[in-house]
Here is the input.
Amino acid sequence: MENVLDLMYSRQRVREFTDAPVSDDQLEAMLMAAMAAPSVQDRRPWHFVAVQKRKTLDKLAKVHKYAYMLEKAPLAVAICGDQKVSEKYWVEDGCVATQNLLLAAKALGLGGVWISLYPKKKHQKAVREVLEIPEHVGVLCMLALGTPAKEKELDLEFDSERVHREEW
Here is the structure.
């Protein structure tokens, strides 16, 4: 396993995938990492819907124009939050879990990309209908995941002008 800082620095958006499937062990490891994330008051409102059936992935690819990569991805994970458990912070908790999942994917030799759904009610509703997600569960995003089709050149995005010390 790579050093966690190396993982963070080298994780990139992956929108093109090989035909290699994601194993059950890889999926479980990613979900364990997601659930290891901190959450407000340790409420852990998250729920994850893992999708590997091609027919369902193809439906999800059509929920909006930026979900097209699901047509080639072997796995999608919808990140959701139970609003009965945490009405105010399910989004923040879901974001932290999502980042953990993406870092775990990188550690496992996989890649992925975040497909934003929240706060667009139209996009959330479309995914909710395809995956039969209950109304009280918010739909934050989907991740397209798989083995990267190609390696991209690393582009660190550190910008020292965005760092302020002690005051603005």
